[in-house]
Write a structure and sequence with these properties.
2-enoyl-CoA Hydratase, Chain A, domain 1, 6-stranded mixed sheet, alpha/beta, 10 helices
Amino acid sequence: MAFEFIDLEIKQAVGWFRFNRPPVNAVNREMLGEMIAGIEDLDANPDAKVIVIASALDRYFNAGADIEAFKAAGSAGMRGWLDQTYALASTVRAASKPVLVAINGVAVGGGLEMSLHADLRFAADDARLGQPEINIALIPPVAGTQGLVRLVGRSNAFRILYGGELVGAAEALDMGLVDFVSPATQLEDDVQTYAETLAKKPANALAAIRRCLIDGGGETFEAGMAVEREQAEALADHPNFEEGIAAFLEKRKPIWT
């Protein structure tokens, strides 16, 4: 598929997905469809072992929805928008590979919400993040309320959503909104380095960890254990488990399939 608003690149087994709709990466319906397709493309590509969501623009990670898309939307228009945004959240959460995020510049609205459904978020030290939907009398519509409360906890989610203000990278780190902060000029290199370490690990075990934490983490403890049981049993039948045990006992590096 040809993309107009998304750039895809694979470097050393790391699949980079970059927003590219100048001047601020505001998301319209066409771009939203490409965002879903771009994640699916990298997830299906055997050359990409890890997915990184980033921006091709220097000052903006993503400015959220193009407000023009909401003019005279009403509930029917919003329903169609939500069908797409929820599909985007589900696509990120369903990916079989680790999903990382490299946040530079301004990250607000839907773009930031997309990152909530990823595994780990890296931010540039000059990044500013927020969910300003309250200022147009809306709530984050990319499953953002649910992703946010699970990530930062109830109190911090209220602070972010009620305030509608942007926070700096250091405060975002304290809240748990991001996991790592890097100098702006070093951000992509740091993410690439970390992603390459993941790309060398057994892909099936990484996928199992995602399923346990994403699918099981929002369930009751007993339901989460059922997800864990299913994944552990499947891993035990995979050649990688036999290879991992053999490599450990023989004191050598494993060769994963």
